[in-house]
Write the structure tokens for this entry.
Amino acid sequence: METNTSKNRFITGFTGLRALAVICVILYHLNQNIFSGGYLGVPVFLTLSGYLVTDHLINEYQSTGHFRYGHFWYKRLKRLYPTLIVMLFATATYITLFQRNLLANLWQSVVTNLAYVYNWYEIANGQSYFQNFAGSESPFTHLWTLAVEGQFYLIWPLIIVILLYLFNKNKHGRLNKKSVFFVAIGLSILSAILMAVLFKPGTDPSRVYYGTDTRMFSILLGAALAVIWPSSRTVKNSDQGQKIFFDIVGLVGVVGMVWLIFTVGAQSKFLYRGGMVLFSLFTVLIMWAILSNIGKWNWLMTNPIFDWIGSRSYEIYVYQLPVFIFFEDKFKNVADHQLLYAVIEILLIVGISELSYRFVEVPFGKYDYKQLFSELYHFMSHTRIREIILGILAIIGGVGILQSTTVNPKQANHTELANRIQKNAKTEKENNKNLAKDIKSGKKS
């Protein structure tokens, strides 16, 4: 297969793939019974991140002979942090004013999210992704994925630079990238094994679901694809056979992904013992078909609707769970109006995401932070509506975060329903314990 290498290009089909991934996640949170595998949109995000970051790192090293680690992190934080900070403080503001039963541990959630270690915080505190009491579910649960990606941004670039430095040139004098590929594959296998070993059937699988060590195979499989098929590589003078080949590759990937999304539940044994790895491999296949830019897949994934959703997928993802939780807390009879409320929730998510994209991500992503102090002076003397709103969120949210440090989690003001569920669970546990004693002593219950 004849190919050529050119300057890095923007892969439009990846935006469409990102759009489909966030749609799956939204549908999963809307109705887990119907869209039982919608959570698998997350491995798509992880695999795409692994590819794009690795592709960027290798291209920069290949072009300049070095990698600017500080600049890399500055660009990532500049793009991701403003939306995350505003979302955290906006959510903290809402909790402070309207849903104080969630005030406990608020400050810890904010701090660990800003430090990109929230997934380990959830693991350390036994927070389940699958069992949440009504009215006390955390609006930050889904942010574990950002922590996993943040840790990947911290460690993986250093590994790549070390490998490229140690194994710099091959026998043809070109940059030797094989070491990166084999390390990525090796760590992927190790991660998949850890997931399979640490998963305990019949128990809550949140530990393996949240863990960076047990989820990094998705990211690293994307990284391996970046080595063997960088974004700069395109098929030259493609023939009909090559087009058919990549159409089939993409079809296998999509059919496999759809099959798993509609058949594999979030707590199935198969998922943690090969299923999620298989889904990531299917994702790699459709990514490969899109990257080739021949055949139909890049065209199918490129359209105005997918472009709009995909370009705002970060905002949609971070705001979707708070909207679901806050809305359903105020409207208890969600089951009586499922379709209507689902439409309202989606409209709220879309509206908030558009505002965040236009007034937070885009302007702050282009902002020159060297002008920060002069801008602060300008803010004090020429305030605008956006700055006033952000200031209010910062003040009220900050008050709530500080106040949450004094709240005992065991005395949190849970809703009546949540307390009843907890009480019933405790009673059931005691009854089971007494029953076990009776059986052991030979008594009849």
